[in-house]
Amino acid sequence: HSISVSELEKLQVLGHGNSGTVYKVRHRRTSNIYALKVVKGDCDPIVRRQLHREIDILRRTDHPQVVCCHGIIEKPTGDFAIVMEYMDVGTLETVLLTTGTLSERTLADVARQVLSGLSYLHSHRIIHRDIKPSNLLVNQKMEVKIADFGVSKIMGRTLDPCNSYVGTCAYMSPERFDPDAYGGSYDGYAADVWSLGLTLLELYLGHFPLVSGPGERPDWATLMCAICFGDPPSSPVGTSDEFRSFIECCLQKESSKRWSAHQLLSHPFVCHAIP
Ligand code: ADP
Ligand code: MG
């Protein structure tokens, strides 16, 4: 049952991003609510490529912790739209802004869910490459789902014209800046684990871990220096041993020492979490 644009009524804007606009929409016939990501046909070629990659990945994934795609719409104008399940709480970024920092207990549950999604993606040779609070969606059931595959990579593809990275570099791992120093047996998957470690720490602290407070906005060079030459961020005094150890396993600068998503699913911080 394909969905056409004319059957969808726009209710509100959910977010703007690099690639386009995401709307909350209602399907007139069924009254179902969806999220609709719309990308203009006349957009930048890079954005267009990103969109095709995102569609490609959404089509081949099926997992409770990966946002579900209900259809792809292409208009004669060249505009593209992705019909997705609507996540009614928003993103972990909005959760942080509206309800404040997350407790270790909540974070353990978030970590377990994101790791489950990442482990699935990695076993399907997909690297997300842009894990951060605003790309992790949440619903009322406290389900967390990975979204926004615009800069993701499918491994083993020889035809990958766009290896350059577009997006924020704040959550990028040391080996992505400097593969020679931190790459070891660099395969790319470990970069998602680094980003998850930073994300969880941010949700605990209430600000990005590589800056000292909420208001600080460092430039690209400052961030790169902090990531490559500084010690990796660690969980603050007062946190549990399990949480501290978990963050340490995610934020190993040398990518080959970092635990994989699959390994982290059996880390005490996560597997002792009460769902
Ligand atoms: P971009 O590549 O433009 O960042 P995203 O897929 O991350 O695109 O979407 C941008 C924003 O739209 C998200 O940060 C989020 O606020 C909102 N959004 C995206 N998908 C959904 C969804 N399925 N349900 C609810 N909100 C969503
Ligand atoms: Mg995004």
Automatic annotation (TrEMBL):
<dbReference type="InterPro" id="IPR017441">
    <property type="entry name" value="Protein_kinase_ATP_BS"/>
</dbReference>
<keyword id="KW-0723">Serine/threonine-protein kinase</keyword>
<protein>
    <recommendedName>
        <fullName>mitogen-activated protein kinase kinase</fullName>
        <ecNumber>2.7.12.2</ecNumber>
    </recommendedName>
</protein>
<dbReference type="GO" id="GO:0004674">
    <property type="term" value="F:protein serine/threonine kinase activity"/>
</dbReference>
<dbReference type="InterPro" id="IPR008271">
    <property type="entry name" value="Ser/Thr_kinase_AS"/>
</dbReference>
<dbReference type="InterPro" id="IPR011009">
    <property type="entry name" value="Kinase-like_dom_sf"/>
</dbReference>
<dbReference type="GO" id="GO:0051707">
    <property type="term" value="P:response to other organism"/>
</dbReference>
<dbReference type="GO" id="GO:0005524">
    <property type="term" value="F:ATP binding"/>
</dbReference>
<dbReference type="InterPro" id="IPR000719">
    <property type="entry name" value="Prot_kinase_dom"/>
</dbReference>
<feature type="domain" description="Protein kinase">
    <location>
        <begin position="8"/>
        <end position="270"/>
    </location>
</feature>
<feature type="binding site">
    <location>
        <position position="37"/>
    </location>
    <ligand>
        <name>ATP</name>
    </ligand>
</feature>
<keyword id="KW-0067">ATP-binding</keyword>
<dbReference type="Pfam" id="PF00069">
    <property type="entry name" value="Pkinase"/>
</dbReference>
<keyword id="KW-0808">Transferase</keyword>
<comment type="similarity">
    <text>Belongs to the protein kinase superfamily. STE Ser/Thr protein kinase family. MAP kinase kinase subfamily.</text>
</comment>
<dbReference type="GO" id="GO:0004708">
    <property type="term" value="F:MAP kinase kinase activity"/>
</dbReference>
<keyword id="KW-0547">Nucleotide-binding</keyword>
<keyword id="KW-0418">Kinase</keyword>
<keyword id="KW-0597">Phosphoprotein</keyword>
<dbReference type="GO" id="GO:0006950">
    <property type="term" value="P:response to stress"/>
</dbReference>
